[in-house]
Amino acid sequence: MSADAWTSVVTVVTLVSALSLAAWLWLLLARGFFWRTDVGLPAREEPGVWPPVCVVVPARDEAAVLPASLPSLLAQDYPGRAEVFLIDDGSTDGTGELACELARRHGGLPLTVASPGEPPAGWTGKLWAVRHGIGLARAREPEYLLLTDADIAHAPDSLR
């Protein structure tokens, strides 16, 4: 490597190092202790009117996990209007039927189970299911959408 090329490499490495050092100094000095997790948010006031929320859950062959996750969504402690949309993306294990049975057994938030059919060319099954679920949810005119997976159990106050 020629001396000029070596000088260029050293210059670039020095500049990148200096920029990295400057970024860390800014984080430490201007955003002091940004990594701390023990700082709590201030208490919030509850709204007078809770906004409507729709939850979209794409699911494919999730019968094994639905008994733990879906009841946690249906049992949300939410004072406003909320609804759950489970979009069954071609399951072969009875996911959609199990979801309906769990809703009958556990009650709670209204559940709509739908199947989007085969995705168009260029779409993956999950993204097609999410898009279909968002379309169904938008018809209810929610102020907020929660997109979640079928294998996640939620705390009772997740929608708050």
Condensed summary:
This protein is an alpha/beta fold and 160 residues long. Helices cover 39% and strands 14% of the residues.
Inertia-based shape: extended
Q: How far from one another are the termini?
A: 62 Å
The CATH class of the largest domain? Alpha Beta
CATH superfamily of the largest domain: Spore Coat Polysaccharide Biosynthesis Protein SpsA, Chain A
Main β sheet profile: 4 strands, parallel
Write the layout of secondary structure elements.
Elements: H1 3-30, E1 53-59, H2 66-74, E2 82-88, H3 95-106, E3 111-114, H4 125-138, E4 144-147
Parallel strand pairs: 1-2, 1-4, 2-3
What this model shows, in words?
By secondary structure, the chain is an alpha/beta fold. The protein folds into 2 domains: 1-40; 53-147, Spore Coat Polysaccharide Biosynthesis Protein SpsA, Chain A (Alpha-Beta Complex), CATH 3.90.550.10. Helix content is 39%, strand content 14%. It contains 4 helices and 4 strands. It has helices at 3-30, 66-74, 95-106, 125-138, and strands at 53-59, 82-88, 111-114, 144-147. A 4-stranded parallel β-sheet has the order 3-2-1-4, sandwiched between helices. α2 (66-74) packs across α3. The protein is extended. The termini are far apart. The mean pLDDT is 92.
